[in-house]
Amino acid sequence: MDIKGVPAVVTGGASGLGEATARFLASQGAKVALFDVQMDKAQAVAKEIGGIAVYCDVTSAESAEQAMQTAKEAHGDCGIAVNCAGIGNPGRIIGREGPMTLDFFSKVIQVNLIGSFNILRLAADQMKNRKANDNGERGVIISTASVAAFEGQIGQAAYAASKGGIVAMTLPAARELAKFGVRVLAIAPGLFMTPMMESFSQEIQDSLASTLPFPSRLGKPAEFARLVRDIVENPILNGEVIRIDSALRMAPK
User: Fold this and answer.
1) Which Pfam family would be a valid example here (predicted)?
2) C-alpha span between 24 and 91 (Å, rounded)
């Protein structure tokens, strides 16, 4: 799909992988709507890239429906949707204070997995109304999984479950939405320089980077965004989860 002129929605667009993706899509000519709960940051990014910032709590059906309608009114039916909103709260199943609370586990699932599905269902509903291109394509939906979906570490039970759900959801969604000309994929990043990573000391960052076979450095958000572009522009990619991780395979802890 040609990115130029296509309405695009990026959740978590105010920072990290989402911000980099929003900036890159805008640089390629997409009409970008940044969905986030951090409105000050989202508005600042939107102003810089010529997009719009829309408040969206991805865990809420009502909030997401309103956000998608706002984006549609501004730019037209969504043609590209990228799910980057997420949380990575660590927590052990049995911690020092007893078993993990069910609320903790549920929150991670709500934001990462249900939030991704929430946007997927609404974006697909808009995409089916778009005029198909020469390949019969109407839209592309990309969610953010994680290498933790495959090699979750100790303390990542909730996070790995949420990302594993995204992995499992990708193929059946791609198969179902194929009749509308909508492709569905996911990206599973390894260790990237995100706001959470930036909060760690340089010593910790260097230690984490040393575990990466090659290149032995943290991924750049712009490199994630470039993969988004490659997925959007390559019509044969569908139903796949693509790792971008410097050949990392995570140890138990």
Assistant:
1) adh_short
2) 33
Q: Which amino acid is at 182?
A: V
Q: What is the pLDDT of residues 190-216, one digit of tens each?
A: 999 888 788 778 888 888 888 999 999
In a domain, 212, yes or no: no
Selection from 230, 225, 214, 237 nearest residue 189 by Cα? 225
Total domains in the chain come to: 1
Structure tokens belonging to residue 167: 């992995």
Bridge-partner residues for 8, per DSSP? 32, 80
Q: What is the pTM of this model?
A: 0.95
The single residue of 35, 159, 180, 192 carrying the catalytic annotation is 159
How many secondary structure helices (H) and strands (E) does the chain include? Answer: 10, 9
Q: State the DSSP H helix or E strand holding residue 95, giving kind and residue range, or none if neither.
A: strand 94-95
Rounded CA gap, 74 and 107, in Å? 31
Q: Which residues pair with 187 in a beta bridge?
A: 144, 242
Does residue 159 have an active-site annotation? yes
